[in-house]
Specification:
elongated, homodimer, about 35% helix, alpha/beta, about 260 residues, Alpha/beta knot, 7 helices, 5-stranded mixed β-sheet
């Protein structure tokens, strides 16, 4: 936890009282003292400092903070993810990892090789994504929660829903082992959003690949090695981010 | 498991008898029948096919294979990793993930912020790396085990050991949040090996950064976000691999 995140409704006149894992972190990990300052952020808001007014060091821990938050600049990361719903334990890990890496929206979708039972899991049924997203934000010192959208049917997602968001992206990438060995070299303009789609264990079926291509998706691959979904998501995020950074670098040199 | 890996001493006259998780995989996941062929590889050897001669479908599973292995071309991945020893659960995950991504040698080293107790863990004490490396190979359809080297003291590793392997690398990269935002743009020649060093949770201390720099390491960073060690390792591996592929691409176009 590299930042203490609080909800705006936990703040009263700049004061926050913490008595959960965040208080425990301040007491046991940071070993902060009264008068110390800790890094604080407001969920979907700004970042700042919290000065420790009181500490109750015995369980249950309690910490009172006087916080100062700077004006926020909501900078949504330029990448979105379409992900065939993975099994719950992997979904949780991926949510934390891509949130730490920086992601705007995560579309969880049905695909042929997604086990139907995954849609009945507790995390989906109870909309229990937030703890894993917060975990990623706390790791990466960010405050802006990614959006999560659920799409329980493949065809309506791509044929009906996707066209309504299509224009927000300049690049539509489909992770597909049969695709090009590398990402398309066409990322060359400033300020574009990119979406990348990662399939289930076993990959997309041909029908799904066709449907993605009809919506303008370009196949991309990260080589011949078959990766687990969580490794593939992080590796693709890293590669696409590097391409986008290098593009900006070139742009800045030219301008 | 995308390839069934066998040890060379399990093979007698091209025949292999499996009665462990590999047999279970063939029976329960692949649902193979007698006469079917499965993808087989020999650990640190070649790849080929195994024809199923017999199947015992009730627990304990048993499968007899008649295997044909092609000549192997030992291609060691062009990347090595220096990693400050992480906690065991994270070490296991990283070993599988980097093996799947492709890695030559993994040097596990001591650093100031590595908890001494990690060196007493079962996986280190019993040299229990192999199952996690095999897991990565089985995922990525590879057969060549990475080498694991343990270095329990930081200074002798960098001052005495590293100079003996230094010449095998063209690029020496040090993951460091204070470093450049991006990797150095100097990767521009064919057929070089690269080593990248990733620190413990909390990062390298100044003394360690100095020592790495004295050995020719160049700071690199993957941006301002603080990542967990496992996410950072995968993201850096992906970025460096992309840079090396693009270098080869340029080379091939020019030649």
């Amino acid at each position: 936890m590299n930042i203490i995140l609080v909800e705006s409704d936990e703040i009263t006149d700049n004061l926050v009282h913490l008595n959960d894992h965040r208080a425990e972190h301040i007491v046991k990990v940071l070993r902060s003292q009264v008068g110390d300052e800790v890094r604080v952020g407001v969920v979907n808001g700004g970042k700042g400092k919290g000065k420790i007014l009181n500490i109750k060091t015995k369980f249950p821990f309690g910490v009172d903070l006087d916080i100062k938050i700077r004006e926020s600049q909501h900078q949504v990361p330029p990448l979105d993810l379409i992900l065939a719903l993975p099994r719950p334990i992997m979904l949780k890990r991926i949510l934390s990892q891509v949130t730490a890496l920086g992601i705007g929206t995560i579309h969880l979708i049905q695909a042929k090789r997604v086990e139907k039972s995954f849609w009945e899991s507790t995390i989906i049924a109870e909309n229990g994504f937030k703890p894993f997203l917060l975990h990623g934000l706390e790791q990466a010192v960010d405050t802006i929660l990614p959006e999560i959208c659920l799409h329980r049917k493949f065809k309506p997602f791509l044929e009906d829903y996707y066209p309504t968001i299509r224009e927000s992206y300049q690049y539509h990438l489909l992770a597909h082992p049969g695709g090009q060995n590398g990402l398309p070299g066409e990322i060359d303009e400033k300020s574009c959003r990119t979406v990348f789609a990662v399939g289930p264990e076993g990959g997309w079926v041909d029908y799904e690949v066709q449907k993605f291509r009809q919506q303008g998706f370009v196949d991309c691959s990260i080589g011949e090695r078959i990766l687990k979904v969580d490794t593939a998501v992080v590796a693709l995020h890293a590669r696409i981010s590097l391409l986008m950074e290098k593009r900006e670098h070139i742009y800045n040199q030219e301008s």
